[in-house]
Specification:
Length: 173
């Protein structure tokens, strides 16, 4: 297939994929990342904000972009925004929030792990989420967190070490 510029047109280019495919392919990962960063109550808001922002920016995304890393970067920023907004408003307690589809989120299999993850310091929680949930390499995590790949690797390792230590204790109570 040839584009209107006469160059070969690759079907896997970002610009060819409908945005709905991007949501379908990466929606569950983005939800898990949002949940890890802001917790289960605000995760769906952060997920929605992520894809609204992504939809606006999608037409300008370079064809060779790493879509998952791009979405995790947006999710990181939107989750922080949602977290800040939540901390500024009262939370009603009369009703329980709706939960995401259990097939899209491992929390239904292991809700205590999510609670343990929330107790990690921010950088460790984010590094663990971005590497172990979203599967991003440490160089991309470093760009998101504004540190070095070594610092991102260390934060993820420290987070996993803390989870292994404290999560096991929580589990045995």
């Amino acid at each position: 297939m040839i584009s209107h510029h006469g160059a070969p047109h690759r079907l896997h280019d970002v610009s060819v994929r409908p945005f709905e495919e991007i949501v379908a392919s990466h929606g569950a990962t983005v939800l898990r990342v949002c949940r890890a960063v802001v917790g289960p109550i605000d995760a769906e808001d952060a997920w929605s904000e992520t894809f609204l922002s992504a939809l606006r920016a999608y037409p300008d995304l370079p064809a060779d972009a790493n879509v998952e890393a791009w979405l995790v970067t947006i999710a990181h920023r939107r989750a922080l925004d949602v977290g800040r907004a939540t901390s500024r408003r009262a939370v009603p307690t009369d009703s329980l929030p709706e939960h995401a589809d259990a097939r899209a989120d491992p929390a239904s299999r292991d809700p205590d792990l999510w609670a343990a993850l929330q107790r990690l310091p921010d950088k460790q929680r984010q590094a663990v989420a971005y590497h172990h949930i979203a599967g991003l390499p440490f160089a991309e995590i470093a760009a998101i967190l504004g540190n070095s790949p070594d610092a991102a690797r260390r934060a993820a390792a420290d987070g996993i070490k803390t989870l292994r230590t404290h999560y096991r204790k929580d589990e045995n109570r």
